[in-house]
Design brief:
It is a single chain. By secondary structure, the chain is α/β, with parallel strands linked by helices. The chain is globular. Helix 5 links the parallel strand 5 and strand 6. A six-stranded parallel beta sheet has the order 3-2-1-4-5-6.
Length: 188
Amino acid sequence: MTTLENRPNTALLVVDVQTCVVEGAHERDAVVANVGSLVEKARQEHVPVVWVQHSDEQIVRGSDGWRIVPELAPGDAEPLVEKNYGDSFEATTLETVLSGLGVGRLVVVGAQTDACIRSTLHGAFARGYDATLVSDAHTTEDQTAWGAPRPDQVIAHTNLYWTYQTAPGRTAGTVVTKDVDFGDTSPS
């Protein structure tokens, strides 16, 4: 249903599941396990897995903290897109990668909910992609010291508003890990 022409395929987009990004994240181990199970399911179903890896002044490219968590490993043939901004499309090769794969629908997982996940979801949707958020496969750290809600509330709110996101000719929504269907283009 995407508004992008000749883009019938789905991809799993794994955003910033990096050591320093998720080290203090809410329910880190459960989220990483859910991401891992979706990566395996996508590979079994021959669905492209596209990895996104952030770097900036705090997350130095090549450092231990910059690396993808040890529980996950991008496959040799799986694209890895490096980024410096919250939106995974901004000043990156992501659009070129997805276009080359014929992808018009994204299933999004990763971190951090209130930063790069939110930005990437909106960036994808505004660019014409269908965008499904896996509600139990994204996380964030505690930012309450700076006035933010607790991480569980941030995650719940993001799941709530993305469930009801709408735009002409595109679909959005949320789904839990166990119900992800890479062939189904209508999120629940």
